[in-house]
Amino acid sequence: MAEHTAPSTSPGPSSTRAPARRRVAPLLAPGLLWISVAYVVPGLLVVVYSFLTPKLGGGVVWEATLDSWDQIVAKGRRSTAGWGTVGAAVLRGAAAAAAVSVPAVAAARYLGRRISASLALAALLGALVAVNHLAAEYNNYTAVFARSVVWSALATIICIGLALPLAVFISSRRSPVTKNALLIAVMIPFWTSMLVRTYAIRFLFANTGPLNNLLETLGLDRIVFLNTRFAVILGLVYTALPFMILPLYAAAERVDRAQMEAARDLGARPPQVFADVFLPMVKPGLIVGGVMVFVLSVSQYLVPTLLGGGKTNMIANLLELQFGEAFNWPLGAAIAALFSVVTLVSLYATVGRRDQEQFL
Predict the structure, then answer these.
(1) Tens place of pLDDT for every residue, the chain, 360 residues?
(2) Alpha-carbon distance 142 to 132, whole Å?
(3) Which residues pair with 54 in a beta bridge?
(4) Concatenated DSSP letters for 39-90?
């Protein structure tokens, strides 16, 4: 006679998850409520406002319209964009791609890597240059969008170049006192207001500031630094650099030095050790720092206002103009909504599909 086994009475995975979720829910409720009130609800309100009619003197009239979105995508009245502009954009992009591809391909061959990644990087840079030129000639809104993205990307690249050697230097110090002192020096800018720091840069590069006075003392002509692209990009790098140093330092602290020594013992040249061993280990810090610097730079208001003098507006300046001076709330809401969507899509493309473990 066949034996009948009693059914198992041990709880399954689904039965054990429910009590755990009920215990965690009260802990998550305050944070989720705050996020909903402070971020989700205002974001939805911005989207709704973008489809309404502007009210004279500020505010909105609750009448649905697409006029705000039409202004963003429509060709500017003074725009001279045409097939000639497209051709000029293609030539500029091709020239930029060619200028980058030559050293990039040479570096790839020296390191023994495939040149496809180098060519893809050059093509991406060329496309960015071409789109920037087209956007600048199409209308004011696309010009500000492109300018904000390009300048923020340039500031991110400069921050990586400055922060990587410094982070490696700090992490390689054997003395804890020296290491902590250097970290405190990096974090000192956080102890002062960004407004104060931006005014300090403005004072330093003013026409009658210390730098121009030094140039005049040396017998050189004074140079106009303020209200230029150079001043704005310098300000973006200055304010965002600590946000790149700290993630890179955290990543460099976890680097396995034994792997680098093993690569050297096996005959790898220093550039190969850097590209094939060191960079993959600090890649999480590069991604986190790059995202932080780009997001902070692209939404800057003080730097283009105080160092650009209103001649080099970015997204935040455009929003302030629509909400504060033009009183066109729907247009400002449409610009904010579109920019938020572009930022979220870019962030998802950068970090959304990656494993969470590599950012720990």
Answers:
(1) 445 555 555 555 555 566 667 777 788 888 888 888 888 888 899 999 999 999 888 888 999 999 989 888 887 776 766 777 888 888 988 998 888 888 888 888 877 778 888 888 888 888 888 887 777 777 778 888 888 888 898 899 999 999 999 999 999 888 889 999 999 999 988 888 888 989 999 999 998 889 999 988 988 888 888 888 889 999 999 999 999 999 999 999 988 888 888 888 888 888 888 888 888 899 989 999 999 999 999 989 999 999 988 777 889 988 998 888 888 999 999 999 988 888 888 777 777 655 554 554
(2) 9
(3) 60
(4) IIHHHHHHHHHTTSEE-TTSSEES----HHHHHHHSPPTT---SHHHHHHHH
| CA 240 – CA 308 distance, rounded (Å) | 17
Sign of CA dihedral 225, 228, 230, 233: positive
Residue type for 158, please? I
Structure tokens at 349: 């493309």
Ramachandran angles phi, psi of 347, nearest 5°: -65, -40
Domain 141-360 in this protein, CATH class: mainly alpha
Look up residue 146 and give its two tokens. Answer: 């492109």
pTM of the predicted protein model: 0.84
Domain residue limits, the chain? 80-138, 141-360
- Looking at residue 3, the DSSP 8-state letter turns out to be P
Alpha-carbon dihedral 302, 306, 312, 314, rounded to 10 degrees: 10
Local structure of residue 10 (DSSP, 8 states): S
- For residue 12, give both structure tokens: 């399954």
